[in-house]
Design brief:
By secondary structure, the protein is of the alpha/beta class. The chain is built from 8 helices and 11 strands. The protein has helices at 21-28, 77-84, 86-92, 106-111, 138-150, 193-203, 234-240, 262-277; strands spanning 37-45, 51-58, 63-69, 98-101, 153-162, 165-166, 180-185, 212-214, 220-222, 225-227, 247-254. The strands form 2 sheets. Strands 1, 2, 3, 4, 5, 6, 7, 10 and 11 form a 9-stranded mixed sheet that branches. A hairpin with a 5-residue loop joins strand 1 (37-45) and strand 2. Helix 1 (21-28) packs parallel to helix 2 (77-84) and helix 6 (193-203) packs antiparallel against helix 8. The longest helix has 16 residues, at 262-277. The radius of gyration is 17 Å and the shape is globular. The termini are far apart. The chain binds zinc ion. Zinc ion (ZN) binds at residues 71-72, 75, 163.
Length: 279
């Protein structure tokens, strides 16, 4: 009789086509053959006692490019796109220092839940931005410590954090238009060539920018952008504490779990990655 798959190897039961956590990591593991290192930053433990690792991949001890996916479990396109971009990253990494954090909340990804097991954002950074005494959860403590102390993110490093906005969570909320929008943070970030390329790419993508409106978190969109938000995210931490710029957080508006289909969102994010690197 076949043994039931453990959670790490099982395809999450969401039905949107997202691969297993193991598949995401296996795709990223091609980087190891190109001389990159892999490190377990932390792990999330399931009800059955299984440990789901949170992994970092990097090709240098100090980095000028940071790629982040999978902070929120209902937003799988970033993690999937990053993992499928790994072969290209191996090439790009020959002339660039890159830190890849492909799936920061595997527990939430597997369950299709926004936050981690403690009900908090896994990369909440308020404890390092002077707004709270203690880390919001163990993952937040480990991930922020890794980024500040171990990874050595250089001032001026460019950051891309791939999110999605599942607006279907709030049926009473109305956003003018479908498509995408982005947060841009950091000194001179909005006019930075990398931010301009990503902006242009999204505008021409299958999910054109929503130019004006208010997000369900009360932030006002201007020209498809939200500038210099103070949301306690790891992106704010990277902008303020590591002086990264531009720090770009992209959002694709989701009207349902498969609206638009995951494959189309992943394709759009592969284009955003090309734009980010100018390749
Ligand atoms: Zn998100």
């Amino acid at each position: 009789m076949a043994r039931p798959l453990d959670e790490y190897h099982a395809v999450p039961g969401v039905g949107d086509g997202r691969p297993s956590i193991a598949d995401v990591h296996r795709s990223c593991d091609v980087l190891l053959g190109a001389g990159w290192q892999r490190l377990e930053i932390a792990a999330q433990v399931t009800e059955s006692g299984e440990s789901l690792p949170i992994l970092a991949y990097f090709n240098s001890m100090s980095t000028d490019h940071v790629l982040i996916g999978g902070i929120h479990g209902r937003e799988p396109a970033g993690a999937v796109a990053l993992s499928r971009y790994a072969e290209r990253l191996a090439e790009l990494g020959r002339s660039r220092s890159i830190l890849l954090l492909p799936l920061l909340n595997p527990w939430g990804y597997s369950r299709h839940v926004r936050y981690g097991p403690s009900g908090q954002s896994v990369s909440d950074s308020d404890h390092l931005l002077g707004r709270s005494e203690a880390p919001a959860c163990p993952e937040a403590a480990a991930i922020t410590a890794f980024v500040l102390d171990a990874a050595r993110v250089n001032p001026g490093a460019a950051v891309l954090d791939l999110h999605e906005d599942p607006v279907y969570e709030e049926p009473g909320y109305r956003l003018e238009g479908d498509g995408s929008y982005l947060y841009v943070t950091g000194e001179g970030a909005r006019e930075h060539p990398v931010a301009r390329r990503v902006h242009r790419c999204l505008e021409a993508s299958a999910f054109p920018l929503v130019m004006e409106g208010v997000t369900r978190f009360g932030e006002r969109l201007v020209d498809g952008f939200i500038l210099d938000t103070e949301d306690g995210s790891i992106d704010e931490l990277l902008a303020r504490r590591c002086r990264c710029s531009p720090v770009i957080t992209t959002e694709i508006v989701l009207r349902g779990e498969t609206r638009p289909p995951l494959a189309e969102r992943v394709a759009a994010y592969r284009g955003v990655l090309d734009a980010f690197f100018g390749s």
